[in-house]
Design goal:
Fumarylacetoacetate hydrolase, domain 2, 12-stranded mixed β-sheet, 5-stranded mixed β-sheet, 2 domains, 7 helices
């Protein structure tokens, strides 16, 4: 299934996407409301009702798709997880980590798949893009063995790990430079794991104003998704709804001196999972 959050008639609801149609799941989700985190926590029990739901249905073009999850307890991201990207970082004088390099994106950065992304007043000139495959956890878990990691994944989504490079460089951790409001566009929906036979065989691409900038296979990760979950769960309990973004390939903007300007449009696509597309605009507030 492709599980989404969408707005229609002034309210936000949960739905499932089938082709060019979205089916409102509200009638079969009593007590869940519009919380994808709550749905994911109960997904095994709810799945038969979700799969059987057929109405009410709307054309996708007549609704607004929202971020598929807005309230995860964690938004975790791995750095330099594709070799070509690690090589370009090394060429810029950034040491390549000898183990998995993790940082937080604060959950307040999350925005919708087609919503504007701000060029912050505090960091207007070095905002960068990073195409990434996202993972959402479906089962509360700790000390997950690599060979069991697939069983705790609820699904996958598309992400742009937007980065304010000057703020990222100011401290030993990346968190501030990764967490400006709107710098976590995700979506367009969550594709459940049963529809993704091999998450390491997907094409990941990014276009800036229609021009190709990033392209890779998710099979080129240094640490694959199952390694990532095993590593993280040694440290912390992962909860339903927690999101993990799994690294970006080479040719980020900083490598070529290309930073976002007002009006720039970035499209990130993952084969079989859809795309997100966001226009960069000056911060207004």
């Amino acid at each position: 299934m492709k599980l989404a959050r969408f707005s229609k008639h002034g309210s936000t609801r949960l739905g499932k996407v089938e082709g060019e149609t979205i089916i409102d799941l509200t009638p079969v989700l009593p007590g869940i409301g519009a919380s994808m985190r709550a749905l994911l926590g109960a997904l095994p029990a709810l799945r038969p009702a979700l799969e059987a739901a057929t109405a009410p249905a709307y054309a996708l073009k007549d609704v607004m798709l929202e971020a598929p999850i807005t309230d995860p307890q964690k938004f975790l991201a791995i750095g330099m997880n594709y070799k070509a990207h690690a090589d370009e970082a090394a060429a810029a004088g950034i040491p390549v980590p000898k183990s998995q390099l993790w940082f937080n994106k604060q959950v307040s950065c999350i925005t919708g798949p087609y919503a504007p992304v701000e060029l912050p007043k505090a960091a207007p000139s070095q905002v960068d893009y990073e195409a990434e495959l996202g993972v959402v956890i479906g089962t509360r878990c700790r000390h997950v063995k690599r060979e069991e990691a697939a069983s705790v994944i609820a699904g996958y989504f598309v992400c742009n790990d937007v980065s304010a490079r000057d703020w990222q460089a100011r401290s030993p951790t990346f968190t501030l430079g990764k967490s400006f409001d709107t710098h976590g566009p995700i979506g367009p929906w969550i594709t459940t794991s049963d529809e993704v036979p091999d998450p390491h065989a997907l094409e990941l691409t990014l276009h800036l104003n229609g021009e190709p900038r990033q392209k890779t296979s998710t099979g080129d990760m240094i640490y694959d998704i199952f390694d990532q979950i095993a590593y993280l769960s040694e440290v912390m309990t992962l909860e339903p709804g927690d999101i993990i973004v799994t690294g970006t390939p080479a040719n980020v903007g900083i490598a070529t001196g290309t930073f976002m300007k007002p009006g720039d449009v970035v499209r990130v696509e993952v084969g079989g999972l859809g795309f997100i597309e966001n226009r960069f605009t000056p911060e207004s507030a």
